[in-house]
Write a structure and sequence with these properties.
Dipeptide-binding Protein, domain 1; alpha+beta; globular; 4 domains; 20 strands; 549 residues
Length: 549
C-alpha cells in the first residue's frame, strides 16, 4: 500500500504506539488489519520482521502420519470443531492467515484495503492459483464461498459472526480478481474473520454441499481416501502455487495420513514413541497429560504456546433454573479458580474471570476475579426460591480429562452452597452433537485473536432476536449488543478497551458462562519432524513440513 493510499487510521495507531498506549505487537496487528503490509508495519514500529527459521536443509519425500479423530465431513462451513478443518485445510485454503503472534496476513488474497470509515473493503485475489481439478481460483469462488457463509440454510457459524455487518447483496464482483464488501456497519476484523476455521474457500463450479464427494481445493494436497472413524489419506500436488525453500513447488512431503486411533491418549502416545505415527492432533486431546508424559522424552518435540482457549461452563438462559441470573451467579461463585487450574490443568494457564475475553486479547480490560464464596451462593439460591438447595445435571465430554476434573472439583465445592451437581459424561463426539442443547455443560472454545471475534460468535442474536449458530446459551443483552457493535467498528485500541471494560462487567454480572481458567496448548511430534510450528488455535499445516529421517 503506497503512502498516498495509506489508511488514515495508521497515523492514530502510530500516535498511540509512540505515546505508549499500545504495544508494538498491537500496533502491527491493527496496522495489518487495515491493509498495511506486515513488513511496512514492523518498520514503522522500529522492528525487523523475522524470517522463517529452518532446522536445516529441506528434505523431500516421505509420509507424515498423524493420530487424529477422522470425523464426518460434508460442508466445511458447518465445521463446529478444529479436527476436521486440520485435515481439510491441507486440501482447501483460506483467504487470509493469522500467525502465532496473532498477526493476520494475506494468503489466497494478494492484499486488501479498508475505506477510511471501515465500511468498504476491497479484496484483491492472487492470480494464477489453480484448484486441484484444473479450475482457476477467481473472485467467483470468493463470492460463492461468502454466500454459503451467509446462507441461513447452511447454518454456518460464519453467519453469526458476519450477518450483523454483511448481507449477500453487499458482495460486489469488480472483476475477475477483485471483490468489494459493502458493509452495513464498520468492522475492523474482516481479515481475521476470513481465517475462522469454517472459512475454507470452495470451488464455485463443483461444490454441491459435500466436500468429500468433490474435494476440489487450492491446497498443497489432494484427498485420496476418506473413511470416517478410520483414515484420511492425502497425496502431494505437483502444481501447488507456493514455492519451497529449494525453489520448487511445495509441499515437501509425498503424503499425509490422519489415523483415527480412538479417544485414548495412552494409545496415541505409544504410537508416537514407537514411530508408528509422527505427530498427534492436539486440538481434541488432553494437553497437560500429553505434556507431562512426553516433555522429557529425548525423541519427542513438545512445543508449548499460550492461548485464548478456554473450557466454558455454559448455562442455557431459556431453560430452568438457568433463566434466573441468581442461580447462574450462585454456580459461578462455587468455582475455586486457583484450585481448578492447579488440579485440572497442572497450573498451565491463567485465571479467568467468567468473561470470554482473556488477558491475551488486545482489548482486554483488567477486571476483578470473583472469589470462591459458597455462602453468598447459598443466599442467592434462597433468594431465587431454592431455600433447601438445588440439584442440577452437568454434561461433559469424557475425552477431555481436564473438563471431567473441573466438573468433579466444582461438584465438591458446590456442596457447601446447597448445590448438588450430577456429572453426566459422554463421548466427545456425542457432546458435540448436543452441545447447544444441554441446559448445563462445559464446552471447549478455541483461541480467537480478537475479543470481538469470540463475543460475536457466542453471545449475539440476529435481527429477529434468534441466537446465532454458536450462541449455545441463548443469552442476549441489549446493552451488551449495542456496546459490542460499537467495539466492532472502533479502530482506536484505547477507546476499544474502554468499551470492553463495560462489556466484560456486563458478562460477569449477568452473563451465562463461567470461565475459571485459560489454557496453554502444545504441539507434539517426533524429533524427525521439521518445521511443524505451534499455533495457538492448534491449526496444523503441512505444506512446508518435512521429515529429516
Amino acid at each position: 500500500m503506497s503512502k498516498k493510499h495509506m489508511h488514515p487510521g495508521i497515523y492514530d495507531l502510530k500516535s498511540q504506539l509512540d505515546s505508549g498506549k499500545i504495544s508494538r505487537r498491537e500496533f502491527i496487528r491493527y496496522a495489518a488489519l487495515i491493509g498495511v503490509s506486515v513488513t511496512a508495519a514492523t518498520q514503522m514500529a522500529g522492528l525487523t520482521w523475522p524470517g522463517k527459521a529452518f532446522a536445516g536443509e529441506v528434505k523431500r519425500g516421505g509420509t507424515m502420519k498423524v493420530s487424529a479423530p477422522v470425523q464426518k465431513v460434508t460442508h466445511p462451513a458447518q465445521f463446529s470443531w478444529i479436527v476436521p478443518s486440520n485435515q481439510m485445510r491441507q486440501v482447501a485454503e483460506y483467504l487470509t492467515f493469522t500467525d502465532a503472534n496473532n498477526v493476520t496476513h494475506p494468503y489466497l488474497l494478494k492484499n486488501w484495503e479498508a475505506s477510511d470509515d471501515l465500511m468498504t473493503w476491497t479484496l484483491n485475489m492472487r492470480q494464477g492459483i489453480m484448484f486441484n481439478n484444473g479450475d482457476e481460483f477467481t473472485s467467483d469462488d470468493v463470492i460463492f464461498t461468502m454466500q454459503q457463509w451467509l446462507d441461513e440454510d447452511v447454518g454456518s457459524s460464519m453467519l453469526g459472526m458476519m450477518k450483523s455487518y454483511l448481507d449477500p447483496t453487499g458482495i460486489e464482483k469488480v472483476d475477475k480478481y477483485q471483490v468489494k464488501l459493502h458493509l452495513k456497519r464498520p468492522e475492523i476484523a474482516i481479515p481475521e474473520h476470513m481465517f475462522h476455521y469454517p472459512a475454507l474457500v470452495l470451488n464455485s463450479r463443483t461444490f454441491e454441499g459435500d466436500f468429500i464427494k468433490k474435494p476440489h481445493g487450492t491446497g498443497p494436497f489432494t484427498l485420496e481416501m476418506f473413511r470416517e472413524g478410520e483414515r484420511c489419506a492425502l497425496k502431494r500436488r505437483n502444481d501447488y502455487w507456493k514455492k519451497g525453500e529449494d525453489g520448487k513447488p511445495q509441499p515437501y512431503l509425498d503424503s499425509v495420513q490422519f489415523i483415527d486411533m480412538g479417544a485414548e491418549l495412552a494409545a496415541q502416545i505409544a504410537a508416537l514413541q514407537s514411530g508408528e505415527t509422527d505427530s498427534m492432533d492436539m486440538s481434541d486431546l488432553p494437553g497437560p497429560q500429553a505434556y507431562k508424559a512426553l516433555k522429557d522424552d529425548p525423541d519427542i518435540k513438545v512445543m508449548g504456546i499460550a492461548t485464548n482457549s478456554a473450557r466454558v461452563l455454559r448455562m442455557r438462559v431459556d431453560v430452568k433454573p438457568w433463566d434466573d441470573n441468581r442461580v447462574r451467579q450462585a454456580l459461578k461463585l462455587c468455582q475455586h479458580r486457583e484450585k481448578i487450574l492447579g488440579l485440572a490443568y497442572y497450573g498451565e494457564g491463567l485465571i479467568g474471570q467468567d468473561v470470554h475475553v482473556s488477558p491475551m486479547h488486545p482489548e482486554y480490560c483488567k477486571i476483578e476475579t470473583p472469589k470462591y464464596d459458597p455462602e453468598r451462593a447459598r443466599q442467592l439460591l434462597k433468594e431465587a426460591g431454592y431455600p433447601d438447595g438445588l440439584e442440577v445435571d452437568l454434561n461433559v465430554g469424557s475425552g477431555w480429562n481436564e473438563i471431567v476434573r473441573y466438573a468433579e472439583i466444582l461438584k465438591e465445592d458446590a456442596k457447601p452452597a446447597g448445590l448438588t451437581v450430577n456429572i453426566k459424561t459422554m463421548p466427545n463426539s456425542q457432546y458435540w452433537e448436543k452441545w447447544t442443547e444441554v441446559g448445563l455443560g462445559v464446552t471447549v472454545w478455541a483461541h480467537r485473536p480478537l475479543g470481538t471475534m469470540v463475543l460475536n460468535l457466542g453471545y449475539t442474536t440476529d435481527a429477529e432476536g434468534k441466537p446465532v449458530a454458536w450462541n449455545e446459551t441463548n443469552w442476549s443483552d441489549k446493552e451488551f449488543a449495542q456496546l459490542l457493535e460499537e467495539a466492532n467498528g472502533t479502530l482506536d485500541v484505547d477507546k476499544r478497551r474502554k468499551i470492553f471494560c463495560k462489556l466484560e462487567q456486563i458478562q460477569q454480572d449477568r452473563g451465562s458462562i463461567g470461565i475459571p481458567f485459560w489454557i496453554n496448548q502444545w504441539t507434539i511430534c517426533g524429533k524427525n519432524v521439521e518445521n511443524l510450528n505451534p499455533h495457538p488455535t492448534m491449526y496444523m499445516y503441512f505444506n512446508d513440513v518435512w521429515l529429516s529421517s
